[in-house]
């Protein structure tokens, strides 16, 4: 387990909003936790009423597993518990009710359930990088940059089927040996443990070549006509 002391935790974007995923397959709590960890990050950590409401909208009235179980005093991903939303007389700890579900047919209130019961579940996923932009463009290179998601997360940059792994400390990357005046589409993914975000795309073009052979083609008392060699990939020019 990893304890993230800052407010922005895995499963949130640059604004601190968690990326939740509904798993409709009915699983026990342990199976749901394994499924979330294998395919996303972990079972949902619900940090406030706004996130509980977002899961409510996602679950559409279903009862779903969330990332709490007894006797743990933290969420499944190791983050502190700062928000609780128990149903009346819950948790009642009757019998083997050691795992917690949120009932969105009852306003999203939480209750304890036997861990072997099979329910739908809510995972949280890896957020995409924010604010993907072209920071610099030349005739042969483009530098893309983005907003850091979390200091523990790395990135993948994909271009034309080729992928580059980027360290967590880096939030920009320069791609060289490109063709002048050509558009390229880049996709950047966030990576956390074995999970990868859906990716964000950016299309940017390299700077076109300068026209060559600039020369006067005609002159009179009130005008000068200039002429240059055509640049094949240019649609227009600025004088």
From TrEMBL:
Keyword Disulfide bond appears in the UniProt entry: yes
Domain C-type lectin: 15-124
Stored Pfam families: fn3 (PF00041), Lectin_C (PF00059)
Domain of life, source organism: Eukaryota
Fibronectin type-III domain location: 128-210
Keyword Disulfide bond assigned: yes
Entry coiled-coil feature ranges: none
SUPFAM superfamilies: C-type lectin-like (SSF56436), Fibronectin type III (SSF49265)
Keywords: Disulfide bond
Cited PROSITE patterns: C_TYPE_LECTIN_1, C_TYPE_LECTIN_2, FN3
Annotated protein name in UniProt: C-type lectin domain-containing protein
Organism: Myripristis murdjan (pinecone soldierfish)
Species lineage: Eukaryota, Metazoa, Chordata, Craniata, Vertebrata
